[in-house]
Structure formats: C-alpha cells, structure tokens
Amino acid sequence: MCGIIGITTEPGRIPEHPALVIRKGLERLEYRGYDSVGVASLLDNEIIVRKGKGKIREVNRRKHLDRVSGYTIIGHTRWATHGRPSDENAHPHTDCKGIIAVVHNGIIQNYLELREMLIKLGHKFKSETDTEVIAHLMEHFIDKGLSPYEAFKETIRNLKGSFALGVIVSYEKDKIFFARKDSPLIIGLGNGYNFIASDIPAFLEYTRRVVVVHDYEIGYITPTTVHLENILTGEVIDVKSRTRIIDWTPDMAAKGGYPHFMLKEIHEQPRALRDTIHGLGVEAEQAIKLIMNANRIFVTAAGTSFYAGLVGDFLLNSLAGYVTVPFIASEYSKYKNSVREGDVLIAISQSGETIDTLMALRQFKKNGAQVIAISNVVGSAIPRESDITVYTRAGPEIGVAATKTFTTQVMVLSWIAIKLAYYNGKIDKSTHDFMLKELYKIPELANRTLTMVEGEAKLIGGEMAYKQNAYYLGRGIGVPIALEGALKLKEIAYLHAEAYPAGESKHGPIALVEEGFPVMFVVVEDEMKKHLLGNIEEMRARGAYTLGVVSDEDKEAKKLLDKAIIVPYVDPLLSPMIYIIPLQLIAYYTAVKRGFDPDKPRNLAKTVTVE
Amino acid sequence: MSKLFERYKAVVFAFEDKDISPLNINYSKYLLRVVGKPIIDYVIGGLRNAKISEIYVLTDNERLSKYLTETWGEHFEENVMITPKNKLTDSIVELKELIGKVPQVILVNGELITDPSAYKFAIETYTTSGMDGVFLGVPVTDSETYVTLISEYGLVRDVLLPPESAKSSIAYGGVSILPVSILNYIANLNDIQLALKKIVKENRIIQAVWSKHWVLIQYPWDILTANRLLLSELKEKRISVNAKIAPSAVIEGPVIIEGEAIVDHNAVIKGPAYIGPGTLIGMGAFIREHSSIEEGAIVGAYSEVKRSSIQAGADISSWCFIGDSVVGVRATLGPKVITLNVLPSGVKISRLHPVKVKGRTLTKLGAIIGTSAKIGACTVLYPGAYVDAGEWIKPLSIVEGIIR
User: Fold this and answer.
1) Which of B124, B169, B356 sits opposite A451 (nearest CB)?
2) What pLDDT digit, counting tens, does each position of A514-528 carry?
C-alpha cells in the first residue's frame, strides 16, 4: 500500500503554495505508508524531483519538499514492496531522459519481463522498484512517435497487476495523467485546480467535490478540465454525472467500510494471508537451509509476535523434529554465555523496530549466531541486521492490537515447518503435498470463518463486557492461541484475562473460579482433545461460564460448553490462523461494548522502541 | 446547489407484516412505539440527520401515511405511495418519475432502529469506496431469520434469503445505497429481496460492517430488545418539570419521565426506564428496569411491570404483573392479570436469548397482547401467550401460550 497525490492549478487559484498543499496531503496519506516520500514538479518544460527515505517530516527537513516551485506537482508516500526503502527507491521515478515522472500505488506483476526487455533496448534503471518500468516503458512508446497520452494508454495496456498511477510529462504543460486498476484513486474538482489522490482526506481541505475513478479507467486532469475514459471500451465518461459531494469529514474513509481499523484489519486477514503465502520465495528457502544446518535454534519476539513464535516453536518441534528454545526478547541476557557460533535465532517483529527483539538479535550476533528475521516492514532495523529476512505481506497495520500480522507470521512459520519436516524426513512427500495444499486453502477458510463467527462473537463480546476476569485455556497448539486471545482481551477491552495450558488448572488457577466466571476453551481436533474435554467438565462443575472455539466436526465439546463458537474444520497444526479469528472478534466487540476505542488502547504504543 | 450535484434520495419500505401481529392489527407496525418514538421516526429522523431530505415511503397502510404527513411535513403527501406489498410494479414506475435521474438511491427498511450515524456511515463508505453500491452489514446470531450477505474480501457476492441465510452471520442491516437500476429489478420481480439478490450479481457492492446497536423490528419481542438497547444507553435521569411526582415516589437510576406524567405515592421506578407523556403510574406501582410506558398508558396501583413495552393508551389495572411482555395499543387489562414469563426449557424462539438467573439458564417471554384487546380480572397468561386484537377474555381465564 502506498499513497499518491497530484495537483494541477492555475497560478493563484489555490490559497496556499501548491507544494505545501501536496505536503499536507501526503501527511494525511501517511496511514497508507511512511517509509519514504517524494514529489515531482513540472516547471518550464522541466521536471524537478525531490525524494528521500524516511517520514515526511524528516525528508521535508532535508529536501524541502514543500518549497518546490511549479503548479503541477505529484507526490508519493511509500510502503515498500519491491526494493527496500532508500532514496533511490523512493517515488517519483523518472525515465532515462528525465522527461517523465511516475507515482504508483500497487504492484506490477510482470515488471521483471518488462525490465529485461527495456534493459535490452538500452534503458538504464536507477532503482530496484517495479514502478520504474512504467516510466521507461512510456518513454519507449514516446520514442516510437506516439503522443504522450497515446503512449500512456499503450503503457497501461502492457501492465499486469494492480495500480493507481499519476504521471507528468515535461512538455505536457499542466497535465497529470492517471489510471487505475485494483488500487483506489479519486479525483478532486476545484475551482481552477484539480486533484488526484489515493484517498479523499488528502485534498478535503480544498474541495468537497469528488469523482471516484473505477477500474480500467484512464485519463488526465488539467486545472480546468477532466478527461476520463474506459480503456477497454474506449467509452468517454461524463464526469459531471459521476461527481459526488462530501458533506462531512470522512474520518472513516481510510477504514474502508469498517468502524475501526482493528475490525478492518481482522477482515483483511484472508487477503493478507493470501498475499503472504504467494509472496514466499527464495528467502524462505534460504531460511530453511539455515535452520537445517543449525546447531541449536532459538525463537524470540515480544507480545503477539512471541505467541506467533510459540506456534512456530510447536510446529518445529512436533512436526519437523527440531528442538527449539523460545524466549521473550527482553530476557535475552540469560543466553549471553550459552549462545555460540552455529546457533540460529529466529527473530519475529511486525515493525522490525522492536527494541527488545533488536537487543536480543545484537547479543546473538555478537556471540556469532546467525539470524532469520520475520517482519512486515521492508528494510527496517531488524531485517537490516539479520542474515535472512522473510517478509509477511500484511500491509501497514494501524490498530495497535496486532491481528493480521499475527496470522501472517504464523503462515510464514507454518510454511517453513512443513518444508522442514519433509526435508528432515519426518513426513513423506504425499503428506507434505497435502499439508501445503491445506495451507494454501487457509485464506479461503479464514474468509469463511469470518462469515460464520462474527454474529456469535458480537453476542459473546456483549456478555464479556460485564465480566471482570476470564481464563483462556488450551492444550498443545491451542496454548499459543489461548495466550494470544487473552492478550487481545487485555489490550483493548481492559479485562483481566489469563491464559495457560489447560492441564495446569488443577495446580492452582482453578481456585479462583466461581459462579459465572468465564472460561474460554480452544478446542483443537488433536489427540489431546479428550483431556481438554475433562478440563471443561472440571470447570463446569465449579459453576464457570464455559465458552469455546470448536470445529464444525466436533461432537462432544459442543454439548459440554455453555456457548460454542463453530469454526470450519482445519488440520490441527494449521488451526491457529483460523481459531484466533473469533477470539480477535470477541476482544473487539467487548471493547466496543465497554465503550473503548480498540484502535487506541491506553498506555500502549504500536511499536515499542524503549527498553 | 446546482442541479449537477443532486443530493441522495431515499426510499423507505414500510409494509405491514404478519410476524408482528396482533400488535399491528387496526394499527400500523411502524407506529408502535419504542422508548417514546414510533419506529418510523427512527428511520426518518436518522435520514434527516444524514442530511437526506428527499424521502419516499412505500407502504400499504393509510394510517402510516396520515401520520407521516401530520408529523413530518406536507411534502410527504406526495412522497408516500400506498400500494399492496405484492403489487409494486405500478408504484415503482411512479416513484421513478418522482425521483428523476439520479445514479443511485438509498433503500431503507422501515423497521430499522439503530444509531443515527449508521446512515452517514453507509454514505461515507459508498462515497469513498468507488464501488457501485454499499450494503450495511450487521453481525447477528439467529441469522436464519434475517436476509444475510456473503462477502469475499469486503465485496458482497450473494444475498441469502431465509432459510438459506443461516450460512452467513452478517445480516443485511436494512440500509443500502444501490444503483438506481434496483428499482427496475423490484418492478420486474415484484419482490425487494429477490431484486437485492439480483443486483449483487451484476454490480460491485461493498459491505459496511456496523458494530453499534441495531434492531430490525420483525417479531413482537424485537420491541423489547430495542427497548433494552436504547434504554441501556441512558446515563442520567431526565424528569420533565411538567411531570407530577409524588414526594414519596422512588426514582432510581437513569429514568426519563416526560411532561404531564403522574407518578403517584410510593411508586418505585428502577432505571433504565421510560415513562411517556400523559401516563399515570398508580400508587405503589413498581416499574422495573428496561420497561417503557408509552404515551397515555396507565399502570394501576400496586402493579408491577418488568422489561415490558406498554404501548400508547394501554390501560393496566391494579395488582397486575406484566413481565417480558408487549401490551398493544389501547389494550385494557383488568385487575390482577398475571403474565408468566419463564418459557419451558427446550423451547427455542428465534432472536430470543436465554439469560442466566442464579446459575440457571432461562428463556423469558411473557404475553403479546393485541391492539384494543380486553382481558378480564384475575386472568393468567402463560409464557408466550398471544391475545388477538380486539379480543375479549372473560375474567378468571387461563390463556395458554401459543408459540408460533
């Protein structure tokens, strides 16, 4: 996800300097990405590009983005997908001659072929991004003698993937070309000036008249006109009939039809999981090799990532047959003297900046260990200092409580564990193929789970809102699921929730259980299930209010529990990605019912950068 | 505002329904009151709040149309179309002419009670999504009684009608913004739900998930659910200066008491509760939480009302117990009428959730008493009893529960 914006104006029509308008717009698009930023301006048949790595404020201090001259400007705020965040990889990208500048949100799937072809034709690439091919391809068509707009159209026809584009050409005064497929793009209509942007808030201060561009639509804006046409049919679209007026501040715009970011991110999980599993490549294979040659394996992380790590730990042990040592990142000093060369550390961090994980990583590196990082932010501190990084492709996560990053981290770890189990001879080829097939089905199953469980989760959330405590219990792979579910409830609903292996009940915690005490069971369909059923009985006998997440193939637990949430059947080893969804939803609806904002829990920060 | 940028136009469907009878017989379902306001007022008020002023109503009830004109302004005279539910074609054609050329319309279910911000939420989602339309989606249990949505990555792929609808737990929330071609579909198919099913196949429609309070009034006990949801949002007492409260009356917790209400000596009102204008709460009466006594109703001396809806003009005599019940408009209950409200175990009623009382799980539903019914003294009404509109029940009767 990235954010793009563009303005073209007649001199003096907009109350502020156009470059300042762009900078303000970019700040409002920061939720779409913030690892690098840049602008390109059209001035006297020349294109000026200013861009750099970092947040808008930092880059602005260095490069003075808001002082660039010109009345036609495009801007971009980046969330890296191809190529790490750096000054070169920041948008806008230009062609060889510097007459075309492109900002792009999305992913060009066929960029490698296009890049090879263009390099053969003599084009020189300056960055590692997929976007740069657009500029060179357009240059290629212009060189062939097409007019800029025709060349732009031809370029779009050759692109595969998703994109929202803004393009300026040095000798096309006052014009911004745009096109959209599968990424959002909005036109803002002003009086003597027009905008394009990824989202409405970017220009809402200056105009409330908007036109939403649909897929496969292409066109250009000038300060006074808008040309919009469908590239497939060639039909020119009447902009006036498409114009809508925004009557109020759409603070929900960024949330895409959800009342909170957290709910949006919970619902995004099927897509995030799909992108993650399809994005696994060479790095994941390298990570597997590293683990296979490792002397000992350690897993570290903090918070939700640690629970994802515990799932990984369980899979590596029980499936792949490797002994792993999981530890909470801030407790790294324990291993100061025991770690040595040949050991491998798997460090998991959503942001890649978590200070505890980073400190642990540095300690291990100092002792000569090698590090595999799993992160969601390309080029962040932990990936930079690691030997190998496997990225989850969850997209930016705004809600402080981690949701989609947990499931995608588990996805990566499951994939690695299945492969390792096969290479290690613990499972045969057919089991390996079958499990991978099941893993590829998880995104679809997650989607079905969301459809199935949300009503029940809302109802349970409404009940939990009036409780003070809760236990979350599981066995085997159910333990990390319970831990993560309880953490969610603590984080956003401010309910005291505790999770532990169900077998521990008798050794103390059960003393607290009294009439109506809610106990949530994670009933996974594995060989430990019969013991868990015994634990349910135990809790019932003491008057606990027993709840449970059970699969739709279950027969026994449903009857025992006061309330069961049914999820689709899934292989027990892959269950965390499915079973956690109702628990996330319960925490969300409990928080909403209690009147708290789940996106901004008190005392918490998204990325913990202090020890 | 220039003609180019016409505002949104809303079409409200308000047809009578069998599921809520006998409460709507000789009356209208949409005029039944929930915490002081007729159901239709929640819809019209919500739309007005979202700055939608052009509202068209399709109904089969003249009483409703008269009410709208009297309360919401004379333009409703034109904007209300009276038509039978199964003969929509002609009135839709007429409606299309009235609406004129707009790209989309807002369709609203007249039985919806929700937070007014739901309408804004739907419109915002629509304006910013770039899709062809939006459905408000609400997570529910008992989804087999609702129309539900099947979505994939946020886009609605199918609309499921009962009983098939149990496959999804996201109910259609009663508000949608759809391409104006939906009106053609309704006219051709003569059915709103089938038209919704058809339009999602041909357009890209996004789902907006709604997490605040929300009820569709389709069964009599939905009124009780709506009362409970709305009343539990009350945080403080609000007592009109024109209400007459006896010095010995006890008013505890968040309670609204409207003007001209009389609360007599030793009456006890436990919030959250609503006491409408012109009501009389007799001496020693006991109004318990989540009760709503609507305009002009009377609760006689020493009667107890618990989690019930007493509709406008109903008259409850002395020494009655009314629990988890809906008493219809202008119904009269003689002295010592008792409703029993614990359903036998094993009886399941859709959208009615069991409660835990002292460790036991109970499902509670009292009686549903129709418009202008008269119930003689000392009658006992079994759980889930229905009394038809206008029915006379002689004193000392026992009315068995008829659960449909």
Assistant:
1) B169
2) 888 999 999 999 999
